[in-house]
Write a structure and sequence with these properties.
4-stranded antiparallel beta sheet; alpha+beta; 391 residues; single chain; globular; Rossmann fold; Dna Ligase, domain 1; D-amino Acid Aminotransferase, Chain A, domain 1
Length: 391
């Protein structure tokens, strides 16, 4: 994956430490870890495993007394998770909760702020202000808005850059006088960044513990084939689905989706490579289509892409993809799916022509492109079509 999430525990150590804020918390993976937790009146116990919407899913336990820590930890571990974070509970007025985020994309760095933070921040998206961080950016004005000193905000950006963050979200934070308290934080990193920093590593990266049926199916396919297959579900109700070949192209495509601001719409990530046979690509495609049909998004695009292959036979792999599309075309039409293709390699003319004919017959053709069109341009056409449908 080009972007992965750090544990909240590691994220808070990094950010609080850089800002000079004392932090108390414990990472817990078993009942044995409870004994190391120091004594406070009440605690918050949370799943720390890259799960979105934890509070609404019952994965955040509040007002936990010292004597109830074991029960709370056991309850969350019993739901199939293996990484928790425990902190002393900070009581506060929810009306004082604020939101702050930093984002890196190809245009540069952006910072966003809202005076209405907390679990319902998305329902008040019109209150979020976004600023591009130019060389002459007015940090003092932002400091007045956020209540965070200008030098602290600049330090936050420095930490972001130095540690290869791609996204940082503090939601919420509260101010007690001049004291800043970070209640919840999420950080996405470029996973290659671990080779350039010593402040976080592979052990700090978190993923949801449970595999979906499709993810498990593809894992078994990979384990029983000389070819390579991977599949990760990012958003079950996403609108952008990827069927990619080759790890390098996969990273480029996923990053581009984030760079144009549609990361929250990206449904899956993964790739097939190593010259899989027709039956294997058919099986892989069927699982991706299964995810498409399960998504509740009103409009969807499927991008079938890859670089120019050295030895993967495009005609053979596309034969499997076409067979899967033929079998599910009626359902794909009902779900308003458009398919975009960009590929090159051995027998590309045959493969591209056949898939174009199939997509036209099923009335789900978005576009088919050979290597004369860059992979990012082809993806851009797919994403633009999705934006156009929303208007």
């Amino acid at each position: 994956m080009p972007r992965k999430k750090l544990s909240e525990y590691r994220a808070k150590i990094l950010v609080n430490g850089a800002l000079g804020i004392s932090y108390v918390g414990w990472t817990v993976s078993s009942l044995d870890d409870v004994d190391a937790i120091e004594g406070y009146d009440t605690y918050v116990v949370k799943v720390d495993q890259a799960v979105k919407g934890r509070f609404k899913k019952g994965l955040v336990l509040l007002d936990v007394k010292r004597g109830g820590l074991g029960t709370a930890v056991k309850a969350l571990l019993g739901k199939g998770y293996n990484s928790l974070i425990v902190e002393p509970q900070l009581d506060h007025d929810q009306k004082a909760e604020r939101y702050l985020s930093l984002l890196r994309n190809r245009a540069g760095y952006k910072i966003a702020f809202s005076a209405h933070g907390g679990v319902d921040v998305e329902s008040k998206s019109d209150a979020i202000e976004t600023f591009a961080l130019t060389d002459n950016f007015d940090w003092d004005t932002l400091a007045k808005k956020t209540g965070i000193a200008a030098d602290k905000l600049q330090t936050l950006l420095d930490v972001f850059k130095a540690n290869h963050f791609a996204f940082l979200e503090i939601n919420p934070y509260v101010l007690e006088g001049k004291s800043l308290k970070i209640l919840d934080i999420a950080i996405e990193v470029d996973d290659a960044g671990q080779y350039f920093t010593q402040l976080w590593g592979g052990d700090d990266i978190r993923t949801p513990n449970t595999l979906s049926e499709s993810e498990q199916y593809i894992r078994e396919l990979n384990d029983n084939s000389p070819a390579s297959f991977s599949l990760t579900v990012l958003n079950p109700d996403g609108a952008i689905f990827l069927l990619l070949s080759g790890g390098g192209a996969s990273i480029v495509i996923a990053d581009e989706v984030y760079n144009v601001g549609l990361g929250d719409k990206l449904a899956n990530y993964g790739e097939y490579s190593g010259n899989p046979n027709t039956d294997e690509t058919y099986t892989y495609t069927k699982q991706v289509i299964k995810l498409i049909l399960a998504s509740k998004a009103p409009q969807k695009v499927l991008f079938i892409g890859g670089a120019v292959a050295n030895f993967t036979d495009i005609a053979n792999t596309f034969a499997g993809i076409i067979r899967a599309i033929d079998e599910t075309a009626v359902d794909l039409q009902k779900h308003h799916v458009k398919v975009y293709v960009r590929r090159g390699g051995p027998n590309q003319e045959i493969g591209l022509e056949k898939i174009k004919i199939a997509l036209e017959e099923h009335a789900i053709l978005g576009g088919v492109y050979d290597p004369h069109t860059s992979i990012t341009d082809a993806l851009g056409y797919a994403l633009e079509s999705l934006k156009a449908k929303k208007k």
